[in-house]
Amino acid sequence: MSDTPIDRAHAAMRAAPDDDAARLKFYERLADAELFLLLTEEPKGDDISPEIAETGDGPFLLAFDREDRLSGFARRAAPMAALSGRVLAQMITGQGYGIALNLDAASEELVAPAAVDWLAATLAARPAEIAARPSELRAPAGLPERLIEALDQKLSAAEGLARLALLAAVTYDDGRGGHMLAFVDAARGAEDALAQATGEALTFSGLDAAELDVAFFASGDPITERLARVALRFDLPVPAMPEPLQAPGSDPSRPPKLR
Questions:
Q1: Structural domain boundaries of the chain?
Q2: What is the pLDDT of residue 28?
């Protein structure tokens, strides 16, 4: 069976233990992945009872990025809950739990409680709002390739949240300069999620000290035409059809409850 994104990121991290960018990429893949959490019994509504491994470093919840890895480890038909890595981290942060990831697989990793808390705090960060009017727009220049790749990967997962995004260098009317990622025809209520995804692309690229402003325009706005002439374009995928959110942890606003 082919490697998973976590497998590849984990191998790169282990091959370069002093490379901060490789370590950040692993945590990004962990946050974005769908994980299967081993339970002691079937979920009861939103309540779940995770299997907990007690170690010298504290208690760890057992999570796997493939169902067959979980069943292979458990050696039985085991109850499980599917939830994203970000939901899992935010669910257990501050409670002293770590994540035992992919035990018995090549990408086995014990994510310590302190690392879980760091990941949850990083994912919870929100960009600051500013009020400024662009006076000059230019083609983007000088941005690291790893940031472009990170944006492309983040936006390829933002199905249905906007029609496209345009990245351009900008000078504002107050004299400040930088780069702006403009989302065109964003879905109603999607602004926070898109701004958060942009911020995560910066952070997990190791560029959290850099600035990338986020803006939202309609396709008919005059500035959108100006942007289209100079900007780097990202087309966001359109989902084939919406799917109901039923599994525990699938709704970030209603994370599972530990029992």
A1: 5-124, 134-235
A2: 93
